Amino acid sequence: MEVTNTSSIMWFFRDKGFDDPSIDKMLRKCKQLEKAQSDVASENWDYLSNIVGIQERKLPYIVSRCPKILTLRLDERLIPMVECLSSLGRNPREVASAITKFPPILSHSVEEKLCPLLAFFQALGVPETQLGKMILFNPRLISYSIDTKLTVIVSFLASLGLDQDGMIGKVLVKNPFLMGYSVDKRLRPTTEFLKSSVGLSEDGIKSVVMNFPQLLCRDVNKILKPNYDYLKECGFGDSQIATMVTGYPQILIKSVKNSLQPRIRFLVQVMGRGMDEVASYPEFFHHGLKKKVESRFKLVKKNNIDCSLREMLDCNTKKFHEKFGFSEVFNCNQNGMYMLLDKSVSLLACDYCSNRQAKEVSA
């Protein structure tokens, strides 16, 4: 009987385009496949494709990662999980996406795993409307043990002072992937680096974790320390670096070569500004160099306007124009790109615009 079943499932896989090495790998990975019925496998395959909406071309990848899903009874495991996930999401495609990200989610029990997980996050202050977003965005959460994994991370976050007003819940909503990291191997070493090397206070740590919890998940030696060392090389003092990291934590994960260096070079060599100014406005590193910093600098320089970095950059295009008295933004192409005009500049119509109009615009 077992030989017959194995032969049957082999033919099923071959019919779906799997080669023999892939089939052998799945049989070794999931011993239950040896006793699987091809009609059950076919029914589950069709359900995932026709009802859940997973693209046919993605199903081989999903099944190869979790072949067990072809052995489960629809009514007992797959349908309850899919329906529960669907109730958590706003778009049916979110469920298909979650399954594609982490196929083993279908092998877990709603009653034994998903429901306790949802209750755990609700107790941490995660709003009911955000629960689905967390699970569907990081479906691997369902595989973590509440007692030996999630509770340990929550206790660590609480030790940082994030134990009031649902702070931990807010942090997890911002970065559900944080729960997948080891406290001892990643979260604690990163926190210690921020305290001892960067010089953040307890309040500074809390601010960073609340605003950008992704920073805790970065490797100290590969990412954070090289960025910190570069900022020191640029001449920033210890207190300045601490202030910048608190105000804009992403500065420690931005590419030195592609982001920090070009902006500092432009700041000093082209704009002629000092490092102290960017130390008080670290969000400078957030703005696009070409599309925003350079274009706005050219306008304020052309019109001899004296302003701080914050005044120049910390507003949208409309407010920037209103603040400094520039003309309206003119939409010059189909893609919504904008041409910024000052009071004295005439509009030379671009190719697309010339098909509709070509006239001079004055303020």
Automatic annotation (TrEMBL):
Answer whether the UniProt record assigns the keyword DNA-binding to this protein. no
GO-annotated biological processes: DNA-templated transcription termination
Q: Which UniProt keywords apply?
A: Transcription, Transcription regulation, Transcription termination, Transit peptide
The source's domain of life comes to: Eukaryota
Does the keyword DNA-binding feature in the UniProt annotation? no
Segment forming the signal sequence: none
**GO molecular function terms here?**
nucleic acid binding
Q: Which Pfam families match?
A: mTERF
| GO CC entries | cytoplasm
Family membership, please give it. Answer: Belongs to the mTERF family.
Name listed for the protein in its UniProt record: Mitochondrial transcription termination factor family protein
Q: Which gene specifies this protein's sequence?
A: PDE191
